[in-house]
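Q: Trace token order:
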Amino acid sequence: MRALDDAGPRFVYAVCRHPADLALVTEVKKNLLDPLPLASAQVAVHAGMSVRNELRQCRELARDLGVMLNSHVLEHRDDRRDDPIRARRTGSGR
């Protein structure tokens, strides 16, 4: 991060941690990124139906920090085996 700041471009650092370590995401944002005027933070996740609870925790953290949630989905054809995304209609009943 220091090298990016020294080079001068705007950049986004997408922090990804195990849910047990989510406090580190807050620390990285507060102590390393917030002081840099051209840096932004995001909370990075790996999408998958098997990790829904972790996704919810990361979504809540991103909301609390006021940053975006960053997820890469189906980066490789083998990722389909893990059933990474599924949508459920809510609300209108359509």
In short: The helical segments are 2-7, 22-33, 52-65. Residues 52-65 form the longest helix (14 residues).
